[in-house]
Protein: Permease
Organism: Methanogenium organophilum
Amino acid sequence: MTDIITGALISGLDAVIEYLAAHTVTCLVPAFFIAGAIAAFVKKDAILKYFSPDAKKSVSYGIASISGIVLAVCSCTILPMFAGIMKKGSGIGPAIAFLYAGPAINILAIIYTATVLGVDIGIARAVFAVVMAIAIGLIMATLFKEHDKGARSAAAQVAGMTTGGEERPRWVNPAFFVMMVLVLVIGASPLDIVLRLAVVYLLTLAIAILLIYFYERDEVTEWGYEVWDLVKKIFPILIGGTFVVGVIAFFLPPETFQPFFGTNSIGSVFLGAVIGAILYMPTLLEVPIIGGTFGYTQGLMAGGPALALLLAGPTISLPSILVLTRIMGAKKTAAYVALVIIFSTAAGLVYGTFFG
């Protein structure tokens, strides 16, 4: 009994160590800084212009649904950005579309999926991810209209308020955020480590120059406070949730479910979506897990369950569900998770029937 408990604890600790090694420097740190910068530097009317409840749906959902193309993030790394957008008064629909699309359609994952698992499933993943982001966002906006009423009220209260740095040239903020995103994307890319470090160093130097010459000291201080506020709220839950997932994996390794993924039946596809919603899979890692652990490349896993897992796995996980509950409440989180599972199942059934 002691050996079992020890093994489970070691499994949990290993999961945490692997998570920290894979994400802390290249993904989480840049993501927290980007989220803090959104809260500190971006004017509320800039966010409301595109993501507010009253913004044109074709614009807000269009931008949100393709946001992941430039963000190499997973279900946990997107959370600080989502929290920052919600804090600035985004409508629930566009914010949810952004939350789903961020991990679901990043360009690295799509290319890697097409290369390892096949072009057909790679294209299917990209197309269904965009459609699902928009559909889930629209449904959430319909279900939780009271959130958007609150967002409108908050916007009215701060109307006319100004923030520091109005005298900055208009190109400064866009350049600042582009470079911040590039640090995140390049830092998490599979490029040679020396090249990555060199590019990230140059980008960081350019960001520092912008901060020194174009931003007030109080603004930079506020940025630091916003980053710390997000870190202390989110990071402990991420670590705890990852540990729990590691312990669960000790008792129920993924291989346990392989016999259930061999067909495109509704049960197999639904199970793939549910397993994807529970397991924590860092971006890109879902591809070798599905291809190797679940046996897709060996023909042991059907296409329907594979796509369902691809669509649900990178976007939600047990750790991210815990954090989302804290950010937007249990009711909204439960609805979001249910919609991801339902739409992932439907997409898997369509793909499995016609292509899988």
User: Anything to note?
Assistant: Residues 158-165 have pLDDT under 50 and may be disordered. The longest helix spans residues 2-41. The chain is about 75% helix and 0% strand.
